[in-house]
Amino acid sequence: MGKQIYGWIVLALLLVAFLIGLAIVQPYRLWLYTKQERDMQQTATNVNSFILEQLREPIFISVGVTTYIQSLEGDIEASRLNRWLENLFDYTEHTKNIGIAPNNVIEHIYPLAGNEAALGLRFADLPAQWPAIQRLMEGGPGQLTGPISLVQGGRAFAYREAINVNGDYWGLVSTIIDADSIYNALNVYLAENSIFDVYLTNSAGTVFFETSGIENNKSIIHVSQTLRLPGTEWQISVVEPAPTQTILVFLVASTALLFSILLLVMWLLYSYKKRAEEKDELNRLQAAFLASVSHELKTPITVLQGSLALMAQPQITESKRSELLESALTHQKRLSRLVVDLIDLNLALNGQLRCHLEPTLIMPLLEELTSLYVKKFERLNIRFRTELGSAKDVSIKLDKDHVYRVIEHLLDNAIKFCSSGDEVTIGIDESESFKIWITDTGPGIPDALIESKGFHFFQEDNTDTKEQSGTGMGLALCYEFTKLSGGTMKLAHRSGGGTYISLTWPRLLMTQSNCDKDKNNDES
């Protein structure tokens, strides 16, 4: 009867959470629109800064060339000018060429190779560009135009600066900026820093850059920002397909389901607290338990929410949607594993966890584990070495499953915190006691963690912006499992940087024959 009541309580909590989720669909939808608009505005600002940074060097080069020619009063020597321009090209990424045009006719161009067709070009013969040249002749500031079609082929932006000698107009400097190079750099930047579509419009209202074909998509949130450039203005537009109501309902309902799990955990914690009121020590454990639960559930829940939110975007491809679904399922499994670890740790701290100590051959255990991780480290370009020595016949009385989980968790930690090019090593030391050690060349561990007692629920950074996530109880579980198996676990800084972890047992080792003998005695 008690189990039936418990089941009804769980179902009631799930139902209430689901109904709450349905009730907040509309407010959540408005919140999501507001958040998207704010994120899109930030994306527009970032794109604005990025484009200015890409154009800064070509524009500064033009100003430098203008100043140089003015200092020579227009008396330029081709070979000397080429050497000077060659040095300038070392400091620019997107510049295609620089043209010098006395009396508005290009007489010198660097580099010449590939740009021969532009020599002798008369700007007066270019009706589309001549009005801008006339404004320069009248004393106007430097101007950026484009994109324009080049006579030598290709599309580019042109920054032109007037050259005045002794107060009179002498000609101009025309710096040609490779449009494709700018577009490629912007595409790479957006791929790494934004999930939104972006397009750029010049002062004539022509769209000259876009991340995808979005002109005919009417179901979008749209944010615009003006990019002010020398002599012109561009419009940066950031767009995002509006999330569908069906996906939002699914998202909020799923969030409500996870929320019900939190309610259930809180109810279990309340029951646990009531049972522990007579024991002062259990009060401390209850507080740590509550903090751990909050931290454990936060990461997978956040990932599930993020994956579902991205699935809400209509422009997401089927392959990407499948990838997001797989990620959600992975973190659902992680959530289940965290619950199991949480229960085991609770039992261990209260002395209720069962431990099956038996003579265990160490080498087969380590060989099995390391073989499972070779491919994982290889995929991440992390070097994985073993220094197991000749301990094939060494066995020790311990709980095989617990020690297996300890080493598995420590290797998972190495994968989590190490980067490409780092090195992880696992080895055995039999010099004084029996020791299994693991080192890595990752970012290392804080002194506070080394000095903590039992590593219970330790978090180096409990903010939402920390680089690596963690449950806050993994090392504590390893510590308790090792202690139950008669060993000790220690953390230290690795010489040269990184982490050193050791699992040590007293030197009460048994040979293969002794192990078999003990097993036979047990059977008899």
Keyphrases for this structure?
five-stranded mixed beta sheet, Heat Shock Protein 90, elongated, alpha+beta, 3 domains, five-stranded antiparallel beta sheet, Helix Hairpins, disordered C terminus, 524 residues, single chain, Beta-Lactamase, 13 helices
Description of the molecule:
This protein has three domains: 22-242, 2-Layer Sandwich (Beta-Lactamase), CATH 3.30.450.20; 247-349, Helix Hairpins (Orthogonal Bundle), CATH 1.10.287; 358-523, Heat Shock Protein 90. Residues 459-469 and 511-524 have low confidence and may be disordered. The chain starts with a helix and ends with a helix. Helices cover 50% and strands 21% of the residues. Strand 3 (143-149) and strand 4 (155-165) form a beta hairpin. It has helices spanning 2-23, 25-71, 78-89, 130-137, 179-193, 245-275, 280-311, 318-349, 362-379, 400-417, 447-451, 474-484, 512-523, and strands at 95-102, 108-110, 143-149, 155-165, 168-178, 197-201, 207-210, 220-229, 232-241, 358-361, 383-387, 395-398, 423-429, 434-440, 488-493, 499-505. The strands form four sheets. A five-stranded antiparallel beta sheet has the order 2-1-5-4-3. The protein has a five-stranded mixed beta sheet with strand order 11-13-14-16-15. The chain is of the alpha+beta class and 524 residues long.
